[in-house]
Each structure stands twice: as C-alpha cells, then as structure tokens.
Amino acid sequence: MKLKLILPILLLITCLAFSQKKQSGKTKRNSHQGVEKRLIKVSIMYPFAEGKTFDMRYYETKHMPMVAGFLGSNLVKYTVEKGFATGIPNTQLPFMAIGSFYVKSLGDYQAAIEPNRDAIRADFPNYTDVTPVILVSDIVYDPEFNK
C-alpha cells in the first residue's frame, strides 16, 4: 500500500524537476518583462478500475480544499471533475475523477506541497484506494485568462 502512494509522488517530483530544467532557457515563465504570463496546471487523475472506490463528496469537500489551502496566493483556482463517459461508445472510462490546481508558479507549488506531503498522503485512504496519475502542464490558452 505504501508503494502505491509513494510511486505517484516520486513521479510528480520527477516531472516537476524535469519541467523546471526545460524552463531555464531564454525566457522565464511569469517574468514581468514582456513575456506572456501562463498558468501551470497540476492534474491528479484517478484511473477507473473495476472494484476500486472513490468518495467524490469527501474529495470535493475535504481533500481538495485542504490541499488548496496549502497553496496560498499561488493558487488561481482548482477544479474537481467526475468522469462518467468516454467519447467512444462502449469503451471503459479512463478516469473516474480528476482534480486540478491552476497555479502561477511551479516552484511555489512544489515549495508549498513539500512540507505538507505527509498530510496529503495520509488523507488518500479517506477517499480512495486508487493510485493517481499526475500530469503537470502549461496552459497555452484559456479564454478565462487570455482576455
């Protein structure tokens, strides 16, 4: 069980470290010198698997607000999604839930999560027995923020 919880965290750390190295090129994200500001999206995706459980109410009302509280002013918004169908009829649902945090700075996100990692991990059994898949992405366009 501990291995199932540690692997996604290690994956997140690896992805975040790699993305920071890629950003150390000519321009820096969120600089104020004519470079467009972009958001970072951290998606925590819970794959659908027969017999696995996910308490959406707990995730929405307890877990996500707890993690959002750790992020402080770096957090722009967060979303919670419940999967219910695929785009292709009669195919298995890929994810039963996805939680996403939209943040201004990846480094600030990492700094906020690191000291709270144990509390976040300890809360997993309260809502799921699924190992999440984590994706960190750069929001290239969002009409809400690219006005």
From TrEMBL:
It comes from Pedobacter segetis. This is EthD family reductase. Residues 1-19 form the signal peptide. Pfam families: EthD. Keywords: Signal. The lineage of its organism: Bacteria, Pseudomonadati, Bacteroidota, Sphingobacteriia, Sphingobacteriales. Residues 56-129 form the EthD domain. The keyword Signal applies.
